[in-house]
Each structure stands twice: as C-alpha cells, then as structure tokens.
Amino acid sequence: METYIILGKYTHQGIAKIKDGPARIEAARKAMEAAGGKMIAWYLTMGRYDFVVISQAPNVKAAAAVLLATGAQGNVSTETLHALTEAEFKEVTSSLP
Q1: Which residues touch 73 (CB under 8 Å, ≥6 apart)?
Q2: Which residues contact 70 (CB under 8 A, 6 or more apart)?
Q3: pLDDT score at 65
Q4: Ramachandran sector of residue 5 (left: φ over 0; alpha: ψ -120 to 50; beta: rest)
Q5: Tens digits of per-residue pLDDT, 70-83?
Q6: How far is residue 79's CA from residue 90's CA, in Å, rounded to a whole number?
Q7: CA 45 to CA 60: how far, in whole Å?
Q8: Where are the alpha helices (DSSP H) in 1-97?
Q9: What is the CA radius of gyration of the chain?
Q10: φ/ψ of residue 21, rounded to 5
Q11: CA separation (Å) from 51 to 1, 13, 19, 43, 71?
C-alpha cells in the first residue's frame, strides 16, 4: 500500500454545508475502501489547511480516482503528498552511493 497525506480546504459550498461534513468524511472513507485503500486518520486543523487526511491506497491511480471524485462534488480542494515510510526511506538511502 502507498501512503498519501492529503491537505484540504473547504470551498465556499463546503463550508456553507459544514454540518454535512461528518457524512462527507464517512463517504470518503467508504470510497477509499472501495478502491482497495483505507483512511488511516482525519484531522480538523487550524491554519493554512482546514483538514489533513492520512490514507493508504494500492496505487496512485486508485488514490487519484477517489480524490478526483471527491473534489468533483465541489465541497473541498486538496493538495496531496505521496509519502514514504521511515522503512521505505531507509531502503532508498541504502542504495545511494
């Protein structure tokens, strides 16, 4: 599984219907599971981003499909980071000259 860190902001539409937020989170969780992944954590944040999600997906195409479908609803915009675990980082650095 590949790990993704998703930084999100509510759109005007999303914040206007913020009471629907918990149901939208659950729908995103189910969509990620249907794509073969899982939502590890969801956090409401203060500052530049409104929320942060840590998720796993089997590949970048599965992650992109879920993110595009979620974004198409118009409630959020996201910036996604493909993350490597510490173990994966060690693998990368062990092959360096």
Answers
A1: 24
A2: 28, 31, 76, 78
A3: 96
A4: beta
A5: 999 999 999 999 99
A6: 26
A7: 25
A8: 12-16, 21-34, 60-71, 86-94
A9: 15
A10: -55, -50
A11: 22, 16, 15, 5, 14
Structural domains of the chain, with CATH: 2-94 (3.30.70.920)
Residue-level pLDDT at 59: 96
Residues of the chain with pLDDT under 50: none
The pLDDT value given to residue 88: 94
Which residues lie closer than 8 Å to 54 by C-beta, 6 or more apart?
A: 3, 4, 5, 6, 39, 40, 41
Predicted model pTM:
0.90
> For tokens 């993350």, what's the residue?
83
Closest CA to 54 of 74, 81, 35: 81
Distant-in-sequence, close-in-space partners of 59: CB < 8 Å, separation ≥ 6? 2
| Strand 76-83 to 51-57 pairing | unpaired
